């Protein structure tokens, strides 16, 4: 099972590493971190680099494609070589997935036209501009395309995908393996749940991805 | 606010990246990824490398120390230069933290003697052998030491830390920024909650960290 996770400069690390931590535990998983040019890709604030070991050309036909988000995803929305690779890979994937603003790239590649899709809650207008129909659901599946909401939602997306691909037992075993029994100290993880002044604060800072 | 996240070969990526994604959003955060020798550090299965930009010597006095886990953490339990650095850094930290089997390193450094602490649910015996008193709580704070349970718990740990350091509003804003509104498809994230045959399965495979 070849799994390609796209990397690029100014990505959000957890968008990629959340699904990675789940999907890499699929029996037989071969995860390839790919980028236009192999090498270290820096996160938005520059503090961390994740290494892409392969170029896009080297991984033309992954069975699972994961497109993370970040400010760099927006910058790639007009980058034809990346969009071509996404389109071409999608033709033969079993699953095409995104986390956060990664769905903007799926949209820019023309894969979401008229389809329900998720993204970071602050990026709904941009997603709609690609032709998709944004929803506030955390994980949205339409056929073989699975899009997730902001940043941390990639963990839920990947567990959902594992259940579809390998069954509920495998998904539950991986959940237990990574001890994913979430207990956030607050209940502020969505704009529907967070206090209004917190939503306003985050809109102002908009240091999201 | 200087934040040091220890890296080493055979680490579990999410142990480091979960707290990173939260703590890097603290106002004024300067995150340093440190290792014995700077360079790319591979995860347990080798698919991903995270880059350490600084050596331990270059970051002797971080205000926040984060020690992730992974098979490589066990291998460092007898590595005196790493344990010396942890002990020395701890003397002046505001917060000393661990995720998953990272607490085995805090224990091996002598920081947990007689203290309650958390770790991956499969590593309780090893943690006890360092003199700590393992608990099944997800986030355990004793003074300035905060230890977390397995892998994904680092996100909850970091949000807890942010609330202590910068207040509830900042923690809630970061939670909303990373849209951390967990909705796992199953409720199998702890050995207390998972079906017995899943717990047995994971014990057998023990591909944890």
Say how many strands of chain A there are: 11
CATH class of chain A: Alpha Beta
Distance between the termini of chain A: 29 Å
Question: What quaternary form is this?
Answer: homodimer
Strand fraction of chain A equals 15-25%
- Give the name of the CATH architecture of chain A: 3-Layer(aba) Sandwich
Number of domain modules of chain A? 1
* Percentage of residues assigned to helices of chain A: 25-40%
Strand order of the largest sheet of chain A: 5-2-1-6-7-11-10
Form type of chain A? globular
**Which H/E pattern describes the elements of chain A?**
EHEEEEEHHEHEHEEEHHH
Number of helices of chain A: 8
Mean pLDDT of chain A: 97
* CATH homologous superfamily caption of chain A: Class I glutamine amidotransferase (GATase) domain
Radius of gyration of chain A: 16 Å
CATH fold name of chain A: Rossmann fold
Name the pair of protein chains with the most residues at their interface, and give those residue counts: A-B, 69 and 69 residues
Tell me about the largest β-sheet of chain A. Answer: 7 strands, mixed
Which structural class fits the helix and strand makeup of chain A? Answer: alpha/beta
Unreliable stretches covering 5 or more consecutive residues of chain A: none
């Amino acid at each position: 099972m070849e799994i390609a996770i796209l990397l690029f400069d100014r990505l959000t690390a957890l968008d990629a590493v959340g699904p990675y931590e789940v999907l890499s535990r699929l029996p037989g998983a071969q995860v390839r971190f790919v980028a236009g040019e192999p090498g270290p890709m820096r996160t938005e604030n520059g503090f961390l680099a994740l290494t892409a070991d392969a170029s896009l050309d080297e991984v033309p036909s992954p069975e699972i494609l994961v497109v993370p988000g970040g400010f760099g995803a927006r910058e790639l929305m007009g980058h034809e070589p990346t969009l071509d690779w996404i389109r071409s890979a999608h033709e033969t994937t079993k699953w095409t997935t995104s986390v956060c603003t990664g769905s903007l790239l799926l949209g820019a590649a023309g894969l979401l036209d008229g389809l329900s899709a998720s993204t970071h809650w602050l990026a709904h207008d941009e997603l709609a501009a690609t032709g998709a129909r944004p929803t506030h659901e955390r994980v949205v599946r339409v056929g073989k395309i699975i899009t997730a909401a902001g940043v941390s939602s990639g963990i839920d997306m990947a567990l959902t995908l594992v259940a579809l691909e390998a069954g509920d037992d495998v998904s539950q075993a991986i959940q237990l393996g990574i001890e994913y029994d979430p207990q956030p100290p607050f209940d502020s993880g969505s704009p529907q749940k967070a206090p209004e002044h917190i939503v306003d604060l985050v809109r102002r800072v908009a240091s999201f991805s």
